[in-house]
Write a structure and sequence with these properties.
Strand content: over 45%
Number of helices: 0
Structural class: mainly beta
Order of helices and strands: EEEEEEEEEEE
Length: 126
């Protein structure tokens, strides 16, 4: 069983930054892709970013590219999301996710992650 625990959410003004972290425990995910999804109030959960098992392949939702940066530390079984230039539309619960099936997670081809965290809320105010 894999447990993913997010941390780092909070409230920030537009233009500010937030750094999210996710710690995976219970099973090594070193060979699997990891990523971040988010769900805004009243909306469906959506893909934000993913990173391949070796950290060399990254994917981003168009609206966050250039503002968000994903990274991972396999030695610590962690994945991170650095978010800058935040806008109110970034307000959402952010979920960490991991795959046991994909070494790279292409949101246009891959079909879902296998493990999910409970989420951390990021609120961006004007």
């Amino acid at each position: 069983q894999v447990e993913l625990v997010e941390s780092g959410g909070g409230s920030v003004q537009a233009g500010g930054s937030v750094n999210l972290s996710c710690l995976a425990s219970g099973r090594s995910l070193i060979n699997g892709a990891m990523g971040w999804f988010r769900q805004a109030p009243g909306k469906e959960r959506e893909f934000v970013s993913s990173i391949g098992w070796n950290g060399r392949t990254e994917y981003y939702k168009d609206s966050v590219e250039g503002r968000f940066t994903i990274s991972r530390d396999n030695a610590k079984n962690m994945v991170f999301l650095q978010m800058t230039d935040l806008i109110p539309e970034d307000t959402a619960v952010y979920f960490c996710a991991a795959s046991r099936r994909y070494t790279d997670y292409d949101p246009n081809r891959s079909r879902g992650m296998d493990y999910w965290g409970k989420g951390t809320l990021v609120t961006v105010s004007t």
